[in-house]
Amino acid sequence: MACSIGLVCDIGVGPGAGGRDRNEDNFLVCDSGEIWYRVDDQDQRLQQDGEGVLLVVCDGMGGHTDGHVASTAAVRVMAKLYQPGAPKRVARVLQNYVMESHRALHRAARRDGPVSMGTTLTAAWVVGHHCAWLQVGDSRLYLARDQQLFRLTADQTRNEFARRDGRPISPRGDHLAQNFIFGSRGLGDDLSLRLDKGLDCGTEPLQKGDGLLLCSDGISGVLADEEMAEIVASSADPQSAVEGLRARALERGSTDNVTALLVRFDDLPQQGESADWLDDPEETVQF
Fold this sequence. Notes:
By secondary structure, the protein is an alpha+beta fold. It has one domain (2-278): PPM-type phosphatase domain (Phosphatase 2c, domain 1, 4-Layer Sandwich), CATH 3.60.40.10. The protein contains six helices and 14 strands. The chain has helices at residues 67-79, 90-111, 158-165, 217-220, 225-234, 238-251; strands at 2-10, 25-31, 34-39, 42-47, 53-59, 121-127, 130-136, 140-145, 148-151, 194-196, 201-205, 211-215, 258-267, 284-286. The strands form three sheets. It has a seven-stranded antiparallel beta sheet with strand order 4-3-2-5-6-7-11, covered by helices on one side. β6 and β7 form a beta hairpin. α1 (67-79) runs antiparallel to α2 and α5 runs antiparallel to α6. The chain is globular.
């Protein structure tokens, strides 16, 4: 599997311009025998054989003093998923590791006393010619294909879950700051966690030349999907694309941390080389 990777992950405008005083975002890239993430904004690169390409973006929960601790802990747990040999139930295994990240953060928060930690987590694991994906929170996943962006995830706001459950819509329910309230929409906030198949987790077949874009709301919170698609389509390579997204987001007044991870699949295995994708995630998982 041959791919090209572009990444930006930084503080954004910083506190001097009304932004965050530290970078609470994090990422995980596992590809070609290497695991890559950050600890305190320092790159960590570990050699480890593994299956496929694993991508994660985490956004430490806004207003939570230990959001950076949570996002780092989450990517470290997810990195354990990158092992040799494709499991037969790829989507289910991905789901299980996200749940383990959630439980680990919950245990840490209870053990360490006066800490306040939580994080979003959006993951995509490409094995063969398929992608298993999962989202908790509002960090988004897009499929880039034929000069277009197709959003695979739905921001988990109060109103999103109210719509799904047939409850009344609140005038303030689409504010992303509220998306950790109902059912703990960030990992580690409390022990409850809900994932609805096809909306919060699923699988997607890929084609040669496709791309996957994962980003925090420092990007998607200020840029429309159409504008993001134009930037990605007009960029020469994934790194130019994510740098363009960052620049445009800051122009639009983003005061949040900024993370964008774009991977373009220049080649994919033949159909027969894929893992068994017949097992989709559970219809609904509630912890």
